[in-house]
Amino acid sequence: MNDRKIKTIVSMAFFTAITFLGIQAFRIPVPAVVGTPFIHFGHVFVVLGMLLQGGRKGAVTGTAGLVIFDLLNGYVQSIPQVFVETIVKCILVGALFAWFRKKADGDQKKEYRGAVICSIVYAVLNILIEWGMGILGLVITGSGIGAAVAASTASIPATVFNAVFMAVAVSILYLPVKRIYQRVM
Questions:
Q1: Distance CA 148, CA 145 (A)
Q2: Are 170 and 50 in contact (CB under 8 A)?
Q3: Residue 139: which H helix or E strand, with range?
Q4: DSSP label at 105?
Q5: Taking the model in full, what pTM does it have?
Q6: Cα separation of 165 and 159, whole Å?
Q7: φ, ψ of residue 30 in degrees (nearest 5)
Q8: What contacts 116, CB < 8 A, 6 or more positions away?
Q9: Phi, psi of 38, deg, nearest 5
Q10: Number of C-alpha atoms within 13 angstroms, CB side, residue 42?
Q11: CB 15 within 8 A of CB 45
Q12: What is the DSSP letter of 47?
């Protein structure tokens, strides 16, 4: 195996592990009508991994880190949703960031702006998907549409807070983490 492949494998393992640890080691429970949400660093590392490694590798590492957390912490019922939504968000936002990076053509300020925009897009997608999946889950378990919409909407503030936290943290951490990542890779 060549040096580049080994570095890629190590990078992917690192982002998988740090995503898991970002949730496992730092959780602040938030009251909500649906589910048991909490503020955490997991999505911060999913997005940083996606921005630095690309959408496909970020989808793999982010999904793996989140699914490992769910497996080890009693959230097995959430795995299908986490699996699909993380892959979709990383592939879409990763493609958007690749476009921003290409348009930046080496201009660090433009690339940074693209990273911030992409973290916001990821946050908005997260909010919309969580809201929609909350409704779907409640309807599947027998709630009426109106009650499901109301309950999912009542739980959105926790998701919004987590999404805003993620976007702000990525905006702060992107440049220093990118410098370290480039030195190592």
A1: 5
A2: no
A3: helix 108-140
A4: T
A5: 0.89
A6: 10
A7: -125, 130
A8: 167, 170, 171, 174
A9: -150, 155
A10: 24
A11: yes
A12: H
Do residues 140 and 18 lie in contact, with contact meaning Cβ atoms separated by under 8 Å?
no
The tokens describing 172, both together, are 């702060």
Nearest to 158 by CA among 36, 47, 26: 36
Sequential pLDDT tens for the chain (185 residues):
788 899 899 999 999 999 999 999 988 887 766 667 778 899 999 999 999 999 999 999 999 999 999 999 988 988 998 999 999 999 999 999 999 999 999 899 999 999 999 999 999 999 999 899 889 989 999 999 999 999 888 878 888 888 999 999 999 999 999 999 999 88
Say which amino acid occupies 131: W
Those residues with Cβ within 8 angstroms of residue 110's Cβ, 6 or more apart along the chain or in another chain: 100, 103, 104
**């699909």: which residue's tokens?**
84
